[in-house]
Specification:
The protein has five helices and eleven strands, in the order H-E-E-E-H-E-H-H-E-E-E-E-E-E-E-H. The chain has 158 residues and is α+β, with helices and mostly antiparallel strands. The strands form four sheets. A four-stranded mixed beta sheet has the order 1-4-8-5, covered by helices on one side. Helix 2 crosses helix 4.
Length: 158
């Protein structure tokens, strides 16, 4: 892939995350980053689907997955894949596992992860600390909706 492809595709259906859980500012694991990934995937499911590229920064530069690999006991793609699946199960539930699949392209000689997300046929919530949140994609970002806004969004959709 080239930078031009990423620039052309970036928008409502494409999102970039530098890492899954490695905080590049602190050099430590940050579980809040995992929550952000789950919100993005849920927003794609509640909208028209999309692709999340992990290992690519907001400017389309390849970061790769090595920083994240170093945070797992199994420091490779398999460890990453297992952890990502556990994140989706934890925050989104196992009933949505058929709505996402992983691809492992190479970009600028670095391996990245492409989470390909399909549109859901029912609302998908992010469950965290006993609270359910509903997100959609709007203007290239994941936006939370109130219950009333969610009701309007879902009217006639599901």
């Amino acid at each position: 892939m080239t930078d031009q492809v990423f620039v052309l595709l970036r928008g409502g259906w494409i999102e970039f995350k530098s890492t899954l859980r490695y905080d590049m500012r602190t050099g430590e694991v940050n579980k809040k980053l995992e929550h952000v990934v789950a919100k993005t995937v849920a927003a794609f499911m509640n909208s028209d689907g999309g692709s999340l590229f992990i290992g690519v920064d907001d400017h389309g530069n390849a970061i790769g997955l090595e920083l994240d690999y170093g945070t797992f006991s199994k420091k490779d793609r398999d460890g990453f894949q297992l952890h990502l699946a556990n994140i989706f199960d934890k925050y989104l539930g196992k009933d949505v596992m058929k709505l996402w699949k992983l691809d492992w392209p190479s970009y600028d000689d670095k391996q990245i992860c492409n989470v390909q997300v399909a549109r859901a046929n029912k609302p998908v919530y992010v469950t965290s600390e006993g609270k359910e949140e509903f997100f959609v994609r709007k203007e290239g970002s994941s936006q939370p909706l109130s219950r009333a806004e969610e009701h309007e969004w879902n009217r006639g959709r599901f």
